[in-house]
Automatic annotation (TrEMBL), chain A:
Gene transcribed to yield this protein: arpJ
Originating organism: Paenibacillus montaniterrae
Biological-process GO terms, alphabetical: amino acid transport
Domain ABC transmembrane type-1: 285-474
GO cellular-component term (any): ATP-binding cassette (ABC) transporter complex
Cellular localisation: Cell membrane
Pfam family, one: BPD_transp_1
Database matches in CDD domains: TM_PBP2
Family: Belongs to the binding-protein-dependent transport system permease family. HisMQ subfamily.
Keyword Transmembrane: yes
InterPro entries (alphabetical): AA_ABC_transptr_permease_3TM, ArtM/GltK/GlnP/TcyL/YhdX-like, Iontro_rcpt_C, MetI-like, MetI-like_sf, Solute-binding_3/MltF_N
UniProt superkingdom: Bacteria
Stated name of the protein: Glutamate ABC transporter permease
Keywords of the record: Amino-acid transport, Cell membrane, Membrane, Transmembrane, Transmembrane helix, Transport
Any coiled-coil regions, as ranges: none
From TrEMBL, chain B:
Keyword terms: ATP-binding, Nucleotide-binding, Transport
Protein name (record): Arginine ABC transporter ATP-binding protein
GO MF, one annotated term: ABC-type amino acid transporter activity
Residues of the ABC transporter domain: 3-237
Organism: Paenibacillus montaniterrae
Domain of life of the source: Bacteria
Keyword presence, ATP-binding: yes
SMART domains: AAA
InterPro entries for this protein: AAA+_ATPase, ABC_ATPase_HisP-typ, ABC_transporter-like_ATP-bd, ABC_transporter-like_CS, MetN_ABC_transporter-like, P-loop_NTPase
Length: 485, 241
């Protein structure tokens, strides 16, 4: 019978979910115990070429100067390297929560950061530059008096920007690529950006020029960050010193800081910059869909349970469901997501994978909304249906699953579709914890190409098509459910 | 005695709907329950399978106390079929699925057997050709006949009918009453709340007259309709006949 089959699907999906994540955890555990070679996890924010970026044109591997240095050091010390990608602003937290063993992400050893983490000796001193439109061409910090200055949030340049005397405003943005966009649209007058990055930016945006600021060796330079009291600082420092001596460091610098190449002029929107990146972006569809499926099913199942609690008439259950809904509806999803991702390892010791954390956060959140929708749907089913089922001796669970829910589902299908559509689009939030969904991939490509519109337009189109497909599937389902009318 | 009711009361808040009803129904007896609206007829019937939980008194079904604190209500209910005024067919299931659902899921009858039984019942109520139709495609009379077949599929000892023809267009009343009459003649124990006096007179062995929550009269139809034993019953009959 069709009705019963409908309810196997969520079960299967749950099993699938655990099958997907279960093995990852166990394999990881084995590596630690069975092999003598210890794995060190490196945290990095791969949107900062040439230090680290996602090689989107090939297989999505993370590459860059920092990666090469890390590989060399770990090779010398006999560790395996595992790279964990995440947002720059989450790196320090990842160190503190023990999610990663060290961080290399073009990170300067500032006094501020030294309060939270330990640093190695610096491996590179970067110079900062002022980027602005060619017609302004600001050359020194003094020139920026009265101007709106931008910098990447949580970066050392943010501190430099804060030092500009008389700056009208300091605008902090998440991505370097955003800064270029803001300059191009005249929202900010100039941005403080690091030399290597500035070189790439001006190369791909002919309208922009850069001016070097004097190198400031007192700021500590780029260094490797470790959790406070990490045993690895000393051995890393030894290898860095050796690299400096042997010229290995210079060799790697040469590799990643090539001579400036001629700029090719491009228009405002030129989709040819996406050439080679499209397959990489398209692979994000699977991640976004898997994530949506997991969170929608979790939301539906949990939401159903909560809605049953709400109509159970049993006081503690009703209170629980009401409190649950109130809390999850009353706090921002982004806060829930971040809390679940960072708090789970600390509270339970389980290193929750980002995708699972995201599925959990969205599922839990969605359950709060759906429980209200489902409750309303159940209440709308004719009371006589329940009486007829009771009179036939059908037990409560069977009655709810086979008689009441299918009819409630039909009532609330449009609301459910809205919820799933919202989930598809909100899923773009998961990019903040490093899940490589569509949005994250667009960000990576933006950072790679220093062009904002093309990748964003492409993913916007993909989201739109996904939602279109989803709504037409829902319409088919609705027709099927209405065949009894 | 198949049914033994002692001093049954039911209150909603301060309003007492049933004020101590005692009666017995023997096997194969057909009881028609009549009375003015608001007299408690439907409430009395719905108490017999605990769709309404009585406030006081006791109900014995097949010598088991339904109202006992530890009674296996679900199992006792399986012996009691119920047909509602508004049919309450499951709209998302075909006629056949409506009938086979409870036997398969509650009594664990095989699907094959349940289907065979369902087709027999559908033939009996004259709807064999509607097996794979959804309820929305049926007329009211057809729906009620399917609802009767659905109850019978559980092979109950007792059938309760709660105004089975009240929601029907006049031309459909007869087809449903004929089915109920056939059932009565087959020896089924039945209680029928009805406004169809002619039907009550023809089909029932006993007439219960309820008024203001009390069982005023319990008598064979001939006696009740010709020489009602109470002033209230006489007045009621005056109004409806």
């Amino acid at each position: 019978m069709n009705k019963t089959r409908l309810f196997y699907v969520p079960m299967m999906a749950l099993v699938l979910l655990f099958a997907l994540f279960g093995p990852v955890a166990s394999v990881y555990g084995q590596e630690l115990s069975d092999q003598p070679k210890q794995t060190l996890i490196m945290g990095t924010s791969p949107d900062f070429p040439p230090y680290e970026s996602v090689d989107a044109k090939n297989n999505g591997e993370i590459i860059g100067l920092d990666i090469d240095i890390a590989k060399y050091i770990l090779g010398e010390l006999g560790y395996e390297l595992q790279i964990q990608s995440m947002d720059f602003s989450g790196l320090i937290a990842a160190l503190q929560t023990g999610r990663v063993d060290f961080v290399m992400s073009g990170m300067s050893a500032t006094e501020e950061r030294k309060k939270s983490v330990d640093f190695s000796e610096p491996y590179y001193f970067a110079r900062n530059t002022i980027i602005s439109k060619a017609e302004f061409g600001y050359e020194s910090l003094d020139d920026l008096s009265g101007k709106i200055v931008g910098a990447q949030l949580g970066s050392i340049q943010e501190a430099v920007a804060n030092q500009v005397e008389g700056a009208a405003q300091v605008r902090k943005l998440n991505k370097v690529a955003d800064l270029i966009q803001e300059i191009n649209s005249n929202r900010i007058d100039a941005a403080i950006v690091e030399d290597a990055v500035a070189l790439d930016m001006t190369n791909s945006n002919p309208g922009l020029v850069m001016s070097f600021l004097p190198a400031d060796e007192s700021d500590g330079g780029y260094a490797i960050a470790f959790p406070k009291g990490s045993p690895h600082v000393e051995e890393f420092n030894q290898v860095i010193a050796e690299m400096r001596e042997s010229g290995k460091l210079d060799e790697l610098l040469q590799k990643w800081f090539p001579e400036a190449k001629d700029a090719d002029a491009r228009g405002m929107i030129d989709f040819s910059v996406l050439e080679g990146y499209v397959p990489y972006i398209l692979r994000g569809i699977g991640v976004t869909l898997l994530f949506t499926l997991v969170s929608a099913l979790l939301g539906l199942i949990l939401g159903s349970v909560l809605s049953l609690f709400k109509i159970s008439g049993i006081k503690p259950l009703m209170w629980f469901a009401t409190a649950y809904t109130s809390v999850f509806r009353g706090t921002p999803l982004l806060v829930q997501l971040t809390l679940i991702y960072y708090a789970t390892p600390q509270l339970t010791g389980y290193d929750i994978p980002a995708l699972l954390a995201a599925g959990l956060a969205f599922g839990l959140n969605s359950a709060a909304y759906l429980s209200e929708t489902i409750r309303a749907g159940i209440m709308a089913v004719d009371k006589g249906q329940r009486e007829a089922a009771i009179a036939l001796g059908i037990p409560y669970p069977k009655m709810m699953i086979s008689i009441i829910f299918p009819q409630a589902l039909r009532n609330i299908l449009p609301a459910l579709v809205n919820e799933v559509v919202a989930l598809v689009k909100e899923s773009s939030l998961v990019s903040v914890i490093g899940v490589t969904d569509l949005m994250r991939r667009a960000d990576v490509v933006r950072a790679d190409t220093f062009r904002s519109f093309e990748a964003l337009l492409l993913v916007a189109a993909i989201y739109y098509v996904l939602v279109l497909i989803l709504t037409s599937l829902a319409r088919m389902l609705e027709r099927r459910l209405r065949r009894g009318d | 005695m198949v049914i033994n009711v002692q001093n049954l009361t039911k209150s909603y808040g301060k309003q007492q709907v049933l004020k101590g009803i005692s009666t017995t129904v023997s096997k194969g007896e057909v009881v028609a329950i009549i009375g003015p609206s608001g007299s408690g007829k439907s409430t009395f019937l719905r108490c017999l399978n605990l769709l309404e939980v009585p406030t006081g008194g006791s109900i014995m079904i097949n010598n088991e106390e339904l109202t006992a604190p530890k009674a296996d209500v679900a199992r006792i209910r399986q012996h009691i079929g119920m047909v509602f005024q508004h049919f309450h067919l499951f709209p998302h299931m075909t006629v056949l699925e409506n009938i086979t659902f409870a036997p398969v899921n509650v009594k664990r009858v095989s699907l094959e057997q349940a289907r065979q039984k369902a087709m027999e019942l559908l033939a009996k109520v004259g709807l064999a050709d509607k097996a794979n139709v959804y309820p929305s495609k049926l007329s009211g009379g057809q729906k009620q006949r399917v609802a009767i077949a659905r109850s019978l599929a559980m092979e109950p000892d007792i059938m309760l009918f709660d105004e089975p023809t009240s929601a029907l267009d006049p031309e459909m009343v007869k087809e449903v009453l004929n089915v109920i009459k056939d059932l009565a003649e087959s020896g089924m124990t039945m209680l029928i709340v009805t406004h169809e006096m002619k039907f009550a007179r023809e089909a029932a062995d006993t007439i219960y007259f309820l008024d203001q929550g009390q069982l005023i009269e319990s008598a064979p139809p001939e006696q009740f309709f010709t020489k009602p034993g109470s002033e209230r019953a006489a007045r009621f009959l005056d109004q409806v006949l």
